[in-house]
């Protein structure tokens, strides 16, 4: 919702030179539809090519993000310092993933930071057997282990030619979120229909109404 109380879809305001898009609660909300841990971290900065919207704005938000990506931090690990470290890793991950998408070369500092984070060993994945069947254990992580998981997820994505070929950038002019298109024909152009897809539909409708006022 905006200050005026009306819902503002992502990207409302039109492309190139239009009024500044409103920042709604939906715009500020965390994203868990990037297609993986690293891309979900990258998506904690919205509208990075315009007026960026910081969605990872403190330890509370970090806790919510961890919940959304099904990881658990050790007691006391969700600190401002970890938020700052994750933001640095996020920008390096964005640089690497967007370079992968465009076929360009990321900054050496981005590659070095991802490698440095991945160097630390995260806990081994583990199954647990219970009355309902097997479940994947969620050991509590240190901040360093969380950064390692994110970095390793990004490296695994870059190493997999099939998944890497599905990297896309949302066509929403203000959004431009990176996501993995896992649909069979890979013709998805929006990060989500509910967000940018609907905004584009509404903009087309407004355009038609303006062209044909009768
Ligand atoms: Zn989008």
UniProtKB/TrEMBL annotation:
Region entry Disordered, spans: 1-23
Q: Extract the Gene3D superfamilies matched here.
A: Jann2411-like domain
Q: Where is the Zinc finger CGNR domain?
A: 167-208
> For bias kind Low complexity, which ranges apply?
1-10
Pfam families of this UniProt entry?
A: ABATE, zf-CGNR
Q: Return the SUPFAM superfamilies for the record.
A: Jann2411-like
Q: Which PANTHER family match?
A: BLL6575 PROTEIN
Protein name, entry field: ABATE domain-containing protein
Write down the species.
Actinacidiphila acidipaludis
């Amino acid at each position: 919702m905006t200050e005026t109380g009306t819902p503002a879809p992502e990207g409302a305001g039109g492309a190139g030179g239009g009024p500044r898009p409103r920042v709604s609660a939906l715009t500020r909300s965390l994203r868990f539809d990037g297609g993986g841990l690293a891309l979900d971290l990258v998506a904690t900065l919205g509208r990075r090519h315009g007026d960026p919207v910081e969605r990872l704005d403190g330890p509370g938000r970090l806790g919510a993000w961890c919940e959304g990506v099904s990881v658990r931090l050790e007691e006391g690990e969700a600190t401002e310092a970890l938020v700052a470290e994750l933001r640095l890793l996020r920008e390096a991950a964005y640089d690497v993933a967007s370079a992968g998408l465009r076929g360009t070369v990321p900054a050496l500092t981005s590659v070095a930071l991802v490698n440095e984070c991945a160097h630390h060993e995260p806990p081994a994945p583990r199954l647990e057997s219970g009355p309902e069947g097997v479940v994947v254990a969620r050991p509590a992580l240190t901040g360093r282990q969380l950064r390692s998981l994110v970095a390793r997820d990004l490296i695994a994505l870059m190493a997999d030619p099939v998944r890497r070929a599905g990297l896309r950038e949302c066509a929403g002019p203000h959004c431009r979120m990176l996501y993995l298109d896992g649909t069979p024909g890979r013709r998805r152009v929006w990060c989500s229909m509910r967000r940018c897809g609907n905004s584009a539909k509404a903009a087309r409708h407004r355009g038609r109404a303006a062209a044909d006022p009768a």
